[in-house]
Amino acid sequence: MGKIKFGILGGGGDSLIGILHRVASSMFDKYELVGGVFNVDYQENLKFAEQLDLSASRVYENLDTLIQKELALPESERMQVISILTPNFLHFPMAKSLLENGFNVICEKPMTTTFAEAEILHQTLQKAKTVFAVTYTYTGYPMIRQMKHMIKNGDLGEIQKVDAQYYQGWINPIIHDIEKRSSTWRLNPEKSGISCCIGDIGTHAFDMLEYVSGLKVESILADLNYLYSDNKMDIDGTVLLRCSNNVKGVICASQIATGEENSFVVKVYGKKAGLKWEQENPNYLYLMQDGKPLQVLKPGHEYNSDLSLDGTKLPPGHPEGIFDSMGNIYKGVAKAILKQPYNAAEFPTMIDGVRGMSFIEKAVESHTKGNVWVDIHNY
């Protein structure tokens, strides 16, 4: 069977997310990048495509032209899946158009800019019956998948607490400069949605806790930080969680944690044991038990689950990273598109995207109403 023909919207130039998706899609020889719309400037679009050695005939001026020209091709030649790597405000209209025209979609998070848009997109997908994935990238790490397996297997016993901390410092030099903070799209509600920090990295933490624990967050209480009165977007926040099975938890997210790079730490504690994982050291999963030495679990060993081993590409002792994590998500999507057997945990779905949007809006609502408990939509 030939490779899945693959297109990209956005991600041109030196975009980190563009490189990440292109490398990830190439890992298992499942996809062939054939074209897309990489830049709003058509000439820059063509130059970038030339760098990638793509035919100019499959590089389009805009999404409408892409859809029209691709649908005019024989089905065996047209793009089967398209990845959306644009700023947040374009996710919804692009994804909706693609679904309505029968394309499979891989979309960066947050999936939309509002919960209402996410609901519309969910309804559109139900009619389209295609494959839709949201790239909560870190769920692709082998040891995160091992963490999920061990919790589901009961190795921790009854879950007592969930905890995620996601600290970055990148916005610190921007937020204190009035010109810079008014010019970046991340702090512009029209382009980014109603939240910066919670929408960008807090939603990763929310999805991750639900992914590994198998619990659902039912209600939250948020306290967000904006620093300046003219800044309409949170850049730091703490969110208390009430989950299913009466489990409590917390998410701490910050983009003004001076000196931090991408410190994402996930912890789940049960009656029998606890597990801890750190994104900056992703090949180590720490198993903690009362009265016993700390155990360090690593990828590639036979003691890991089938789900973890399926996402491991190298022998033990050979570090894997974020490209591999995203590659595992693309691998799962490929199985779904090709109608091959796959584990539901292999890629985040539309439902994850919808719940993520509910979390973002409810966090802002909780803060705005004076730090009160609010319920997450039940999806």
TrEMBL record:
PANTHER family: CONSERVED EXPRESSED OXIDOREDUCTASE (EUROFUNG), OXIDOREDUCTASE. InterPro entries: Gfo/Idh/MocA-like_OxRdtase_N (IPR000683), Gfo/Idh/MocA_oxidoreduct (IPR051317), GFO_IDH_MocA-like_dom (IPR055170), NAD(P)-bd_dom_sf (IPR036291). It comes from the Bacteria. Signal peptide: none annotated. GO terms for molecular function: nucleotide binding. This is Oxidoreductase family protein. Residues 144-275 form the GFO/IDH/MocA-like oxidoreductase domain. Residues 5-136 form the Gfo/Idh/MocA-like oxidoreductase N-terminal domain.
